[in-house]
Each structure stands twice: as C-alpha cells, then as structure tokens.
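This part of the workshop introduces the protein records we will be handling. Getting from the letters to the tokens is the skill we practise here. The record below serves as our worked example for the rest of this section.

…
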Amino acid sequence: MMSKLLYSVSMSVDGFIAGPGGDMSWLMEHLGPNPLVDDLIGDVGALLVGNTTFRGDDPHRGTEKEGEAFGGGWSGPQFILTHHIPDNPQPGITFVGDLATAVAAAKDAAGGKYVNVLGADVARQCLEAGLLDEVLTIVVPVMLGDGVRLFERPGGADVRLERVSVSHVPHATNLWYRVSG
C-alpha cells in the first residue's frame, strides 16, 4: 500500500487551528479521549511538519508531554520542511529544504502508513501540489476569533472534498474528508 498524506488538525468552530501568534494553549481544555485519534496514531508512519509548527507553541507546554508528537502518544520519523536547516542534527528529525523531497522521504519512511501533515502552510503547499489525500478536522466547541486559519488561499478557489466519516466525542466532532479535486 502506498502512503497517503493526511492533514489532521484540531480546529475551533470558527476555523482557527491556533490562536493569535500561534498560541496553542486554548486547546488543552479540549483534549480528551478520542477513539478515532487513538486508532489513527497507530496508522501514522511519519510526520511532515511545517517549520512554524515545529518551532511554534505546544498545547502541552509546561507538562511532561511538551515537545512530544500527539502528546507523547506517537514516535517515529519526522520531516521538517524549512528553508533554514539547522547545523545540529536532532535524533529522529530530518530537516528538508523542498516540498517534493520532504514528501518523498516521509512517504518512504512511513512504509505504507499515513504521512501526517502538521501545519497550515505545509498542508496548503501539499494541496496546491496535488499531493494531499485526506483531511481530518477535529472541531472543538470554542470560537477563537483570530489566529491561524485551517486553510487560506489568497484569492480563493474551491477545494472539493468528499466526506469519509463523521464521529462525535463529548469534547469534539471528527470530520474526515478525502480530497477529490
């Protein structure tokens, strides 16, 4: 099976994945058991992360889960898309300067499992390059009013999605889509 690219993200009802300045502290009170996410974690073989997300705020800041993918629920290869590759390597993390190379390396490392895309800008780049396969939005019951949008395309243009599933947990609604055009 060929690895697919999945953009998975928690989002406020008004469409923000981070608050102003990339603040993620709003998310902590909305995290809780989610069987869909628990199952998904086992199906993720690699992460493709945008530089802003990698270097940004952590919803687990100040806890033992800080700096851990999925709050420590997942471990594996991470590919960071950046124009500023650091001189010092980090274990399990590969910094890559261009999208095509990053996607190819992440898919190879994922071994047929999902490549989970983290970060609005890298997800947009994947979508515009025709590389993004699926989108999972976990909608939490809060409105932030400002921040980082789930998706932005200056000038706008429709992105067709086909609903794969909808499920609910007490603190969120899971909306899973396949990119169809």
